[in-house]
Amino acid sequence: MSIAEEEQQRQRHPTCSKSSTFSAESYFATQPPPSTLEQDVERVREFIARQQKEGRRVVLVTSGGTTVPLELNVVRFLDNFSAGTRGATSAEYFLKAGYAVIFMHRQFSLQPFSRHYSHSTNPFLDFLEIHNGNGLPEITVASDKRRDLLEVLTAYQSVQQAGVMLTLTFVTVNDYLWLLRALSHEMSILGREAMYYLAAAVSDFFLPRQKMSQHKIQSGKGSLSIEMDQVPKILKPMVDEWTKDGFIVSFKLETDLGLLLPKSRAALERYGHQVVIGNDLHRRKFEVVFVSPKPTKPNGSATGDCCGPQFEESWLRIDMASPNPAGHVKEIEEDIVGELVRRHNQWIGINP
Amino acid sequence: MSIAEEEQQRQRHPTCSKSSTFSAESYFATQPPPSTLEQDVERVREFIARQQKEGRRVVLVTSGGTTVPLELNVVRFLDNFSAGTRGATSAEYFLKAGYAVIFMHRQFSLQPFSRHYSHSTNPFLDFLEIHNGNGLPEITVASDKRRDLLEVLTAYQSVQQAGVMLTLTFVTVNDYLWLLRALSHEMSILGREAMYYLAAAVSDFFLPRQKMSQHKIQSGKGSLSIEMDQVPKILKPMVDEWTKDGFIVSFKLETDLGLLLPKSRAALERYGHQVVIGNDLHRRKFEVVFVSPKPTKPNGSATGDCCGPQFEESWLRIDMASPNPAGHVKEIEEDIVGELVRRHNQWIGINP
């Protein structure tokens, strides 16, 4: 069905609008792009060209939740839980592993490096000291905080100097979808050297612009009722069209452990990408599962027998009780990134 | 109608659940308190006792948006727009004016002092310098950033030393409602010396715990439909019962300028508190309107004639184009707080 036909059908059957589903194509044909899109794409293009020239692989890390505005003049919105810890932490380890990072995150979600100094849990104002003397007083970092900060600051400064991280922000699910499509196009020139690490918590639902209320929804008229449409499954066109050779890692977050593997496998089957990382909301800091297609034999058939499973799983767990030699608790993202770099090597064709 | 009767009626007419409205009483009888409530109240009680002993007035500043979780294992929630700028900025000016501040804010929203160094717009890692020498390198603040930071840091450190700010956090609208009720009770012993500056953006709707989904709502089943109930209007019991003598300031945010005055007046009429500050979403940084009841004559009648308006309005505007002598752009919260302190003086019975 063409976009025009889909649109017509929606208009002809307004009572069917409940279950209208947008294809990726009709989504982008009917929902407006964010105003900053072109400018962002320009920055990405320059960044990628430079990284390519300097021989670096590039990973796109998406991070944080997306919002679904309920009003055009936004006051209320639907949101997804995500502080952005997974994305911000992983980005640091990708940088450490020599990747250039495009960090595409929800405004105000955690960012690499500064994440260690949350205003709530470790406010930086608490470890600054004023030293009065002649002229303008000096401000220094208290000695007991200096060692940890030095490590973070040194890494941060070297990333800034080398110009290997580009930060982009989104707020709504619409911003996210437009940005992801544009960036996939730009990164596709890197072929197999491009990795996509899609850690953002993206809404499954959205409210088409055409259905939004102009002003703040007024209370005092009883209860609030919202009908939302499904967000198109854009991993499909991403894999099939936008970036055919990219190494794509998506995430599946569930609260019901029993659904984790079935839903991760279903996603792989549906979209045909490289890895789904499944995680349970309450165990995600110390346990994840990598689900991927079974490797094919040289003749193209799966290594399993004809009727065996098409997918393989491997669990990754860390021991949170024992700190490493530097006194820090290990972060599971260190091992997730290590494993992905290994698999990306294979994907590119470099044997370990 | 008693709570039991209200509850019975809801159960008897499940099809009427759409328009079920909770009274404040039935809300607190059916929705569970946050697990940290008692501990928070304990801290508040000690704080207030100390401020009272030291002869300080106390203002409760609420700030940031509230969430409405859609699932018991929360992944998705409805949110209200608010970075918490109004509350965090105003808290600084209340402290400057000699008030002790209970800063009750949405987790991760802006906070007094640290608000000047947002990780996105003014990241503090950018102005730290490493100085290598003998032993552990020193970290200092770059000289071009030092003057501004000194001002903020000096104020922050003196507030910490004097112990005149207590910070509490909330996330959901349920956390907010329980905390507000408990704090109003605690602060009521201050009588007219207590001010309430209710700048948080509180949801008008909520999903009763009894209607929540246990696990993440699954997509793939068509559109999402949510029916929410109205949050009880708790300003009413706050004024009438919880803190009869407190000086209460509420906010009205609208996107349609034409609704601002009518809705502000309606709020005053309904709840009978002292001031509504009306602000338009797009003009709130440089223009607000104070709406308050007309002062009564000594004999108790309003100063207006019998049929004139019961309320008076005064607009407060600042000129954002001209920076003050220190080179900073003026913040409207400075004047809002100045005006409120003047009115609070009158309320307490101190003539200017």
TrEMBL record, chains A, B:
GO terms in the biological process aspect are: coenzyme A biosynthetic process
- Which Pfam families would you find in this protein's record? DFP
At the top level, the lineage of the source is: Eukaryota
Which InterPro entries does UniProt cross-reference here?
A: CoaB-like_sf, DNA/pantothenate-metab_flavo_C
Q: Where is the DNA/pantothenate metabolism flavoprotein C-terminal domain?
A: 57-112, 193-284
Compositionally skewed regions (Polar residues) per UniProt: 14-24
The record's region (Disordered) falls at 1-35
UniProt GO MF annotations = catalytic activity
User: What family is reported?
Assistant: Belongs to the PPC synthetase family.
PANTHER family assigned:
CORNICHON-RELATED
Q: Please identify the protein, giving its name as recorded.
A: DNA/pantothenate metabolism flavoprotein C-terminal domain-containing protein
Organism expressing this protein natively: Amanita thiersii Skay4041
Q: What is the lineage of its organism?
A: Eukaryota, Fungi, Dikarya, Basidiomycota, Agaricomycotina
